[in-house]
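[09:14] KT: can someone run the structure on this one? pasting the chain below
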Amino acid sequence: MIGLRRMHATLAAAVWAVLLLGGAFRPGAATPDGPPRPAVGSPAPALELADPTGQTVRLADFRGRAVFLNFWASWCGPCRAEMPEIQRLAESLPDGTAVLTVNLTGREASPSAPLAYLAEHGYSFPVLLDPRDEAGTAFQVASMPTSLFISPEGAVTARVAGPLTYRAMREYLTAAVSGPPSATAGRSLNRWLPESVPLGPAALPTRALLWLAGVLLAAAVAGVPRPVTDARRSAAEAESDPGPSLRARELVLNLAVGGVLGAKLLYVLMDPGAYVRSPALLLAFPYGRLALPGAVAGGLALSLWGLRGVPDSATVWDRALPGLLLGAGVGALASPDPADWALGPALLAAGLLSLGLSRLAGPPGDGAVTALLLGALAVTLADLARPSAGPAGITPVQLLAAVVATLAWIRQRRRTVAP
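[09:31] RB: done, structure tokens below
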């Protein structure tokens, strides 16, 4: 027990040391090493196509403005759901921005199909036609819709496979105005994965599939009955305690369901009209800067509601958190930012280590504290591998992880230290 306390103190000190001082050792910016599709931070490929009137338009013509570039087809259901949002964006563009859409005409049933669709619905946003799939090949568009946000300097600031709401489009576009992020080396697993997996007429983003795999892994690990290591429990309880295991699995599922609902509900409340016009957007993967805070709030709310009245909630967290670290590691492997290549492996290592250390005897809550501290250390250490040409800074995720883990450690130390 004393050894476990010392380990917790060492981990807490390491988290803050890496958080506050580690940025000084972060390597400088790297040049992209030829990813199979335009990566965030890399220059956007050249684009030169004709609009429906035959006038040639070049992406370079928009240099000096941030551009929302969208690839679509008239037969694509998710594209159709997104069209009213693009029209809304085109009618209320922020200063210094532009909208440009590319119909992949070579993938249409006929060259006239997109023009008939636009005329039928009265859409007036700028459209370019790509009959030979030149732009689709240059930008490696494997699924539709695919959107890229390009800075005034011509660099890709974000890439999204799947439909977006008007508010998410504005968030990404406003961020693009401020300029491109530092160029990064494309080492992430996402580099070799397709952006989406076709499921009949629809397509599911690979990010969503990996997060789903992470949830299933976390639930499986949390729900495995294992011997209780608390020496103060009875011999009958020590053989196996399926109660906390089942509740830990429910906790993981509540976090997942609450996270999805929280991320989606936040945007629905902020812009209900978008979902009234296009109900299919409710089924889209949540994108936008507020998706993560909404997911965290929703997941915690539903999980805490599920733990109400549970006398051994600390034991439940002990069982759940190592699995959650493993699940988060799997989900992080699909990060679209090549600079996040180390986050997934770091979280997986933290999950495996916390799972092994969970066998150490200690009062309820110690296992959860161990997992939180290891997770916070993984998040801060992974950032050392993020190239950056600018001064190192502390991200909100890093700070949140460090604060939560430290507060949990202090609370557990006060609770277990005898008066």
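[09:33] KT: thanks! The beta strands are 48-50, 56-58, 66-72, 97-103, 127-129, 146-150, 156-161, 196-199, 202-205.
[09:34] RB: yep, looked fine to me
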